[in-house]
């Protein structure tokens, strides 16, 4: 891979790294995609939208909004556990549905995917679907590129988060960092779609408060941020690209939570073939096992969170970076 680190001996010495892993080669997925397609061209038959995407999203949106209305008069001792043990799974499912839609994997028409993303956004409580797509597609195209890939923690995060306590706080709040980091480091001017996303979301939030009260809206917001923190499903934020093994920068997860997360755990497969919907990614591994069986992977997202917090050599610096390509003069 050609990756180096200024403090490469830190892992052996048991101290926190003070720099990212730096790669001097291109990200691995484009070249592997070409190689796999040359050997297994039938994989192209998997490309295209998931015909069940709309139905799956509609069911989860309806169930979560209905649950919020049921909790309008509930006490916090009931709202909090329901939000963590139930609502968080639904809202995280919708977050990953939006991830799926950012790749236009529900409809062939991009605008229909955006409208469905705005609909899937409703129980999340805060507008994010349109903005997410802008930054996420850059993460795929420029994986690890310094100053472009906003999936990578900032220098400030990496210098502040230094031990198990601060890492635990960071994990609890990681959805805030994930959402706000690009807005501070690489803001993009909003357009008509962002305005539409914002307007529809605020209208839904206002309607929930007007018709059912603040507790219904609070349940939705809690479901979002509890599900994005110290939560089994949120382990994918760490498992996907945090470097626990310097020779690999993307990791897959092959555990049962894939059934609730649009199979985002098949992350090497997803980056290799972002035009294949999550429901079919397992077929990529079945068709071309020689490319994936040798890669390190996970079976538990909860274990990944535990490893991240407790391993004193791992932290926000545990990401692969590469320099931006030089522009022609």
Give the overall pLDDT as a whole number: 94
- Count every helix, treating DSSP H or I runs of 4 or more residues as helices: 16
Structural class: mainly alpha
Overall 3D shape: globular
Q: Evaluate the radius of gyration.
A: 20 Å
Helix content: 40-55%
Detail the topology: elements first, then pairings:
Elements: E1 3-4, H1 10-13, E2 21-23, H2 28-39, H3 53-70, H4 76-102, H5 110-121, H6 129-141, H7 155-160, H8 164-172, H9 174-185, H10 192-212, H11 214-227, H12 235-239, E3 252-253, H13 267-272, H14 281-287, H15 289-292, E4 297-298, H16 301-310, E5 320-321
Parallel strand pairs: 2-5, 3-4
Antiparallel strand pairs: 1-2
Helix pairs in contact: 3-4, 3-11, 4-5, 4-6, 4-11, 8-16, 10-11
Question: Which descriptors would you attach to this protein?
Answer:
55% helix; two-stranded parallel sheet; mainly alpha; 329 residues; single chain; 3% strand
Task: Give structural notes.
The model has no long low-confidence stretch (mean pLDDT 94). The longest helix has 27 residues, at 76-102. The two termini are 28 Å apart. The protein has one domain (3-321). A three-stranded mixed β-sheet has the order 1-2-5, with no helix packed on it. Strands 3-4 form a two-stranded parallel ribbon. It is built from 16 helices and five strands. The protein is mainly alpha-helical and 329 residues long.
């Amino acid at each position: 891979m050609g990756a180096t680190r200024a403090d490469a001996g830190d892992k052996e010495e048991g101290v926190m790294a003070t720099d990212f892993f730096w790669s001097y080669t291109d990200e691995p997925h484009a070249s592997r995609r070409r190689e796999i397609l040359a050997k297994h061209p039938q994989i192209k038959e998997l490309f295209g939208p998931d015909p069940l995407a709309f139905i799956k999203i509609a069911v989860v949106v309806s169930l979560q909004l209905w649950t919020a209305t049921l909790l309008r008069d509930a006490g916090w001792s009931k709202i909090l556990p329901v939000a963590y043990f139930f609502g968080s799974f639904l809202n995280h499912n919708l977050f990953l549905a939006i991830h799926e839609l950012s790749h236009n994997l529900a409809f062939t028409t991009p605008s229909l995917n955006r409208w469905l993303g705005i609909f899937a956004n409703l129980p999340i409580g805060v507008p994010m679907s349109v903005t997410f797509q802008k930054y996420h597609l850059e993460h795929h195209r420029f994986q690890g590129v310094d100053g472009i890939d906003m999936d990578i923690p900032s220098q400030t995060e990496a210098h502040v988060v230094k031990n198990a306590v601060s890492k635990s706080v960071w994990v609890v709040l990681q959805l805030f960092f994930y959402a706000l980091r690009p807005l501070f480091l690489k803001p993009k001017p909003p357009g008509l779609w962002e305005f539409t996303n914002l307007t529809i979301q605020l209208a839904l939030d206002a309607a929930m408060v007007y018709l059912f009260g603040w507790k219904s809206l609070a349940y939705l917001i809690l479901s979002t941020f509890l599900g994005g923190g110290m939560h089994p499903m949120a382990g994918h934020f760490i498992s996907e690209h945090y470097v626990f093994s310097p020779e690999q920068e993307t990791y897959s997860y092959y555990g049962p939570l894939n059934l609730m997360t649009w199979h985002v755990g098949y992350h090497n497969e997803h980056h290799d073939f972002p035009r294949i919907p999550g429901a079919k990614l397992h077929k990529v591994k079945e068709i071309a096992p020689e490319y994936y069986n040798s890669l390190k992977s996970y079976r538990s997202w909860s274990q990944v969170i535990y490893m991240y917090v407790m391993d004193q050599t791992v932290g926000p610096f545990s990401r692969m970076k590469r320099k931006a390509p030089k522009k022609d003069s």
